[in-house]
Amino acid sequence: MKTSDFFYDLPQELIAQTPLEPRDSSRLLIMDKKTGNIEHKHFYDIINYLNEGDCLIANNSRVLPARIYGIKDETGANVEFLLLKQVGNKVWETLAKPGKRAKIGTKFTFGNGLMKAAVIDILDDGNRIVEFECSGNFYETLDILGQMPLPPYITEKLKDKERYQTVYSKEIGSAAAPTAGLHFTNELLENIKAKGIKIGYVTLHVGLGTFRPVKVDDVTNHKMHSEHYLLPQETADLINETKKNGGKVFAVGTTTCRTLESVAKKEGKICYSEGFTDIFIYPGFEFKVIDNLITNFHLPESTLIMLVSAFAGYNNTMNAYKIAVKEKYRFFSFGDAMLIK
Q1: Which of 15, 77, 185, 206 sits most deeply, having the most CB atoms within 10 A of its CB?
Q2: Is domain 3-63+160-340 classified as CATH 1.25.40.10?
Q3: Rg (CA), the chain
Q4: What was the pLDDT predicted at 225?
């Protein structure tokens, strides 16, 4: 398949710049993957598509407020660091802007001295290895100084940092939110549990590679980024029990889907597993775990729309996107959602 097969026209005004309130008031496009039939609902209606004995599996990764602004000690010039990956105690691989100000040995100050940093290495791809120091807890200091690393297509400033976190986010480590989960409220989750649907969690720390465009013509030549995941025993037991009793597994988001299908592929079954995955799911992939997928609307020619096409069928997916554009759904991270059943 060609990357261009996954292109669709999207008017700029349909790219959601701010999240809706309340979270579950966003629209929900329901697609039946067997028939291609489409319904238009709201996200709070999702409870009507979950039945007693089903399980809902979500990614509880929490986004790091990873974008920090500081000054170069020598000159006072402004610099921006984006923390990508922890490689040691208070040592991070980062993107530096402008890079020319971040040579090896250069020192920086953030928040009037709350945090300091020094560049200790430069990688082949230009990313900087930076060692940070602060008097208090690193993550608490980062929470004070840092801003959410919103994707480049969101240009409005986020008023409340928690709106780029799911209500169940717990494990710090993502550079981007698992956005399908942003639609859930605590009340909706409680109502889902009360209906007899059990909820389980995996952790997959979303990397910025999730926004990396596919630059090859032939989809099969694309190399996926690697991300750290954890499937706890408790969640594995829940999925196996659900399957055994004839219930359906609902995956919240492509990150949850990738975690579950990675484990099934690696282990040959669903069990406790931790490691790194670079699984690339595109049409032709054989799904072994998930029965239903809750997801947002993704960028044209992205690996995410390819994953959705693999699950729902290529023609069904491209038709659903065409309808969503026509019906003026809101797209991308703060946009509306889709349930594929």
Answers
A1: 206
A2: no
A3: 21
A4: 83
